[in-house]
């Protein structure tokens, strides 16, 4: 069971959820970060204690910016909950295309479905695969108001005990920093990736160049939630990578509005000396925009303090 005892909502351009001038008490059993004005720059964050074999503090911050796009299609999620007696942190970035509805649906439902899976604690990887599949099926079965060409990527990081489990669908991305070095924890699902192209062609689809490589000449990612008209070529099957928390300085979870103009190494280098997670996420957003990113930009930074 997931304990839902607290909810913090931030207006656009809000500050962090914790007053950092005072020692932070242990977080309540559930923290939900959201924003009201989806088209505006928003930022925020918080601090929590997670317990594994080593007690550790995490701080996290987010920033999300419409940028040069006419509308905002990015959503994100940051939750810390108690699941079956264990503290679990979930961070996700969802980059919609063809509209924002798929990304919003993922923000509202993906972690709820994952944390309620009966095997979430004892077999987390299987739970992730099945929860992603169920969320996709549920979304596709809800016809009302959903466009057939609407879809979304999903890059998520689950912190459970001493582990980081990253699940990725699409071209948003998760990168870790170890001793100042960038460690990719996901690989973009692009149609020209050799294994992805082979999978698509074996399913009867095709990939061609239309300004960039696209599935069916339409979609520039090879995996996504939604996109009903491109099934079975575009799927929501996640690739999962597990990492030990020990030795990880911080995580960056971001949409391709960031990664299109900033490399993994550059992102880590830009914020490795910024100890405030919200300030780090803002710095990355600002740098991506200054480099000419033409997309929505959303970034979540999670910093680890094992002491």
TrEMBL record:
Pfam families: PP2C (PF00481)
Cofactor: Mg(2+); Mn(2+)
Keyword Transmembrane: no
Source organism, top-level taxon: Eukaryota
GO MF terms, alphabetically ordered: metal ion binding; protein serine/threonine phosphatase activity
SMART domains in the cross-refs: PP2Cc
Catalytic activity reported: O-phospho-L-seryl-[protein] + H2O = L-seryl-[protein] + phosphate; O-phospho-L-threonyl-[protein] + H2O = L-threonyl-[protein] + phosphate
InterPro entries: PP2C, PP2C_BS, PPM-type-like_dom_sf, PPM-type_phosphatase-like_dom
Primary enzyme class: hydrolase
Domain called PPM-type phosphatase: residue spans: 59-304
EC number per UniProt: 3.1.3.16
Transmembrane segments: none
CDD domains referenced in this protein's UniProt entry, alphabetically: PP2Cc (cd00143)
Keywords in alphabetical order: Hydrolase, Magnesium, Manganese, Metal-binding, Protein phosphatase
Similarity section: Belongs to the PP2C family.
PANTHER family tied to this protein: PROTEIN PHOSPHATASE
Name of protein: protein-serine/threonine phosphatase
Organism: Pisum sativum
